[in-house]
Known about the structure:
CATH class: Alpha Beta
Structural class: alpha/beta
Number of helices: 8
CATH topology: Rossmann fold
CATH superfamily: Alpha/Beta hydrolase fold, catalytic domain
Radius of gyration: 19 Å
Oligomer: single chain
Amino acid sequence: MDLRALVTLALSLALTACSDDGGGGLTGDLTSGTDSGEPSSPTGDASTTTTTTTTSGTTGPDPTTGGSTSEPGTTSEPGTTTGEPDTTSTTGVSGCEGGGLGPGDHTIMLEHGGAMRSAIVHVPPGHDPQAPSPVVLNFHGFTQDAAGEVLFSGMNPVADANDFVVVYPEGLYNSWNAGFCCGQAVNSAVDDIGFVRALVARLHEELCLDPARVYAAGMSNGGYISHRLACEATDLIAAIAPVSATIVIDPCAPSRTIPVMMFNGTSDILVPYDGGIYQSAPQSFADWALYNNCTDMPEVTQQVGGVTCETYDECDDGVSVTLCTIEGMGHCWPGNPVCPFGTPNVDIQASEAAWQFFKNYSLP
């Protein structure tokens, strides 16, 4: 058994222990250096969600082991609901002529690579179905799911306040094939880049989507797949903001410049800041500066509490590369006061900071 496999096994055992401790609250997501936590399900009234299905591809993992078909209610965070039930779904929306998913939470499903895949789509309450909308793809961590990422990242209120759609894709085997990790998605060679492309195409049918403003964020394994999308799908993704993740795909060969904002804690035991099995946060930061042909030295652009954000600002095509180093933070989502692996940090809200970063960029 190689080193990566040993680490995966050890972290998986740790996850089992955390999940079985009877304490409620959070469970973890781990793999060879990846994981994310997930708060326990909130209480509150659930609304009817919309489920629609399409197909794409014919080969791949066993469809019976595909993504979850469970549909969350309208609760996005404890005590916060998205309003009245929505039962409307109009497929085939073309040219933003009307129809499409209304405000609320929806589960959409599509078949890709022989497996049934799903995603939660959160449409803000003030959404105009005829106005082209930016979309943030928010990827969960290893062993976790889309519903957990809704809670852990707290991105829905940010979407509501800023009028963008946020989509939480569901990974096969609760994992993403981000390159060197993670879990069964890698072992089964799941075509997650193809799935994301198929999902975005599907979103074009369900929403008035602005194709120039599709962004990617995610926690841990979900952050790893965000990095991979920036390496391999720069025609699709306008910018990325991974949390507790570094580049784990080799080679990383983006076809154009792409803006990147990273959030990494210095006390993260699962994705060590200074590296180990995988690349360090500073090295990924430097690599993105190299890929974007940044010619300056990074300068401090934000410093609050334990957070120091440094930015390369003189890069080709007007893009920038930022690393927010969070002193003493563990494997956590910045802004969430609860963290399953280490000390949390609320000096910066990663979901809000990511959106403020994203809104400056669109595809050329």
